[in-house]
Amino acid sequence: MWESLARVNAVVGGVVWGPVGLALLFGTGCLLTVRTGFFQLRYFGYWMRHTIGAIFLDRNVTAHTDDEAISQFQSLCTALAATIGTGNIVGVAAAILAGGPGAVFWMWGMALLGMMTSYAENVLGICYRRRDAAGRWCGGPMYYLAEGLGGGFGRALAVLFACFCVLASFGMGNMSQINSIAGNLQAVFRVPPVATGIVLALLTGRVILGGLKRVAAVTEAIVPLMALFYLFGALTVVCVHWAAVPAAFAAIFRGAFGLQAAGGGVLGYGMARAISWGFKRGAFSNEAGLGASVLVHCAANVEEPVQQGMWGMFEVFADTMVVCTLTALVVLTSGLVDLDTGAALTGVEGSALVGQAFSTVFGAFGPQFIAVSVLLFAYSTTLGWSHYGTRAVVYLLGECAAAGYKLVFAAMVLVGAVMKLDLAWALSDTFNGLMMLPNLVGVVGLSGVVVRETQAYLKRK
């Protein structure tokens, strides 16, 4: 049965992450970039000041509210909690090993265009959100698909998105993340996976049963800590290996276009693999185009759609251009991979490869550092995705189904800790792609709304 499922998944995954899916992802980013006048580049300083800069200058950004809304900073932390996960460690290493150093270049390209895709998703999310009976904000791709596109087609896309979101929340958002935590804690600290699963299941249930406000409060505390912890370690490794940084960047640009290959066919194949893995791992990491983070951004206490859209741009920038780039440089400057092919020279892969790269500077503490980083990154991802799945279930079945979903979600944490999940990672990629397709159709169809909101904002501000 599992072999049949793997074959079916390979076929479906080949379609959603093949030429059609990649063209839709790339084309949507290009369309929005052009139609908004290259907003992410022309107004780079402006949106940086009004996102990360505003955290220190504008108290309204971090102010908590008495109602069911969360602050702009909490929405960012919850979205980053779901976004910055094992993809930033394991995913980057996997992209380099499978697509060569050139995959990093295409991760950057995907992020540059993905900034505008994420921006558009969040603009639409705020435009089409609404209050439920309890006064809470409800929004996300389901709402702008059903109400923005309208008709039976829009409603069908909304239902498809919600179904795929629920499935992805159990796969990529839960079991895959928890399995990475359990595997690392067992390998480095000898913690039995079942013990990890029980503790995390109980913690997860306690947090998510408290609702979005409790999830946001926890992620508000975890995300800045985990980001500073990992960035400090990664910057230390890169600085120690500073002499190898130029060669690492040269390998990235050379590999992006297959310049190390000989012959037209091999050249094209190498470039295609770099593009495919760069885009796939880029989407897995920053989630631009998937529409998932909109489900939490819509709960922010903000009235201006463009303002929340700019937080979406910063989310992609921080995830890929900062965290993923540092991970890539850690790996490529360590001397543990072939800079022409990306092949590991030590026989280890994934987080173990990154751990070995850290050990070149931190010694035996390197793998321990990565194990703690994976714990923080992956567990925060699980908390963020619990909210995504909850909102999708509520859209499909109503508020009465929320508690049941949360209990099942917490139980799946234990399952994820003790089972082999090679297939689950592949399924996660597929469900991500299946979420992406209806969402991007809606974003393209409603791009005119995004353009009008952007132009109106720029005139006012």
TrEMBL record:
Listed Pfam families: Na_Ala_symp (PF01235)
Secretion signal span: none
Transmembrane segments: 12-34, 76-99, 105-128, 149-171, 191-209, 221-245, 251-272, 316-337, 357-380, 392-419, 431-451
GO cellular component: plasma membrane
UniProt membrane topology term: Multi-pass membrane protein
One function term, GO molecular function aspect: amino acid:sodium symporter activity
Gene3D superfamilies noted in UniProt: Amino acid/polyamine transporter I
Claim: Iron-sulfur is one of the keywords in the record: no
Sorted UniProt keywords: Cell membrane, Membrane, Symport, Transmembrane, Transmembrane helix, Transport
Chief place where the protein resides: membrane
PROSITE patterns xref list: PROKAR_LIPOPROTEIN (PS51257)
Coiled coil: none
Subcellular localization: Cell membrane
Record-stated family: Belongs to the alanine or glycine:cation symporter (AGCS) (TC 2.A.25) family.
PANTHER family in the cross-refs: AGSS FAMILY TRANSPORTER, SODIUM-ALANINE (PTHR30330), TRANSCRIPTIONAL REGULATOR, LRP FAMILY (PTHR30330:SF3)
Name of the protein: Amino acid carrier protein
Organism: Faecalibacterium duncaniae (strain DSM 17677 / JCM 31915 / A2-165) (Faecalibacterium prausnitzii)
Lineage of origin: Bacteria, Bacillati, Bacillota, Clostridia, Eubacteriales
